[in-house]
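Can't attach files on this board, so I'm pasting raw text. These are the components:
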Amino acid sequence: MRPLTHPSIENVRVEAILHALSDPVRAAIYAEMQSDGCPQSCSSFASVRAREIPKSTLSQHFRVLREAGLIHSERQGVEMRNTSRYAEVEQRFPGLICGILNAYRQQADENA
Amino acid sequence: MRPLTHPSIENVRVEAILHALSDPVRAAIYAEMQSDGCPQSCSSFASVRAREIPKSTLSQHFRVLREAGLIHSERQGVEMRNTSRYAEVEQRFPGLICGILNAYRQQADENA
DNA sequence: TTCGGTAGTTCAGAAAATACGAACATATGA
DNA sequence: TCATATGTTCGTATTTTCTGAACTACCGAA
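---
Top answer:
Structure tokens for the assembled complex are below.
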């Protein structure tokens, strides 16, 4: 099991962020992580439980979020502690994340 | 040659926009279209001329932008008139495009 | 009205990215 | 030590993207 890699904030790229969040599952996970401040394990997310996502797929999703620089993952016992790197990303790309999450929220509201 | 399809603004999806703009070439084209208000043909873009992009690839890029709802394309004689649908998109998803274009600009500045 | 050039599209096969089952790794508690 | 839980990795199937070649549509000149 190779160690988890996190890009330093200055190496975070816009295209990687957009790509990561262009997947509705990943966007939902990230949004949920955003609203709930405390670290959460991969399988604890409501957006994950709702759809039935195979765990290998889930693992990939978290890797994409991680390597895009959006989240920080750390092993804590048997599970993973995932936290958003929002503050850093917001400082580097002001308004980017907000705009994206708002848009998703808006879209979700329409279907409600 | 099948007719060009443009989604109506209410059918525009965030994930499609993010996907479209997660490609640096498409993002550059769109940004350029943004800054220059008047309609431009596909091959007229500086970002296109700089890199040497095969025209079949270019055609696909424009299709992705079009079907994401980001641009409007219209045949005008032998060439294409492409215009940004920014105003509509901004109304539907306030701040989204701005955040993205700012982020790309910021990133470009760093490499300058 | 035909010919030549220009701008872009479509098609088909190659290449790259993604999805997911099965096997594996790692930590915990009994 | 063993059973269980959380997540990763690997291999392969599927999907998406890229691009050269052929094609379409339009224009202007002869």
